Amino acid sequence: MSKESRIFIEISENIIDLNYWYKIVSDDSSGATSSFLGTTRNEFKGKSVERLEYETYEPMAIKEIEKICKTILNGFENDIKKIGIVHRIGNVPVGESSILIVISSGHRKSSLEAVHYAIDTIKSTVPIWKKEFYTDGSENQWKGNCESCHFNNNNHPH
Asked: Which Cys pairs does UniProt list as disulfide-bonded?
């Protein structure tokens, strides 16, 4: 099986089907399947959120996600079996999912660490932008990802 046949990527406006993606990465040689499911929460910095809207330059986003997947397949003690990543674009209401990362591996440590690496790297390198829409009608702004802002207490506006 080539590395490319172990990578499954989709950018879609459709609701994410968890069972479908778990089946895609299912592998009889796997002892673990780990995942991350990102959902739209109902609040941001005290404002009530109605929905998020995502946009991307799809060819570049897919290319960047492929790079991340290949890095994962070449690392983690060559224990990764398959990787599935789907990111929604368009409107994603509160409670619905915007991204799913599912990774199967021989052992749990590899898939858990790979999922963590994947989401952090996707959020910092892949050209996908979101706009929050608030229930009070206040100004909506496009936001890029700035992973370190939330963890280092930097006072960025997003």
From this structure: none
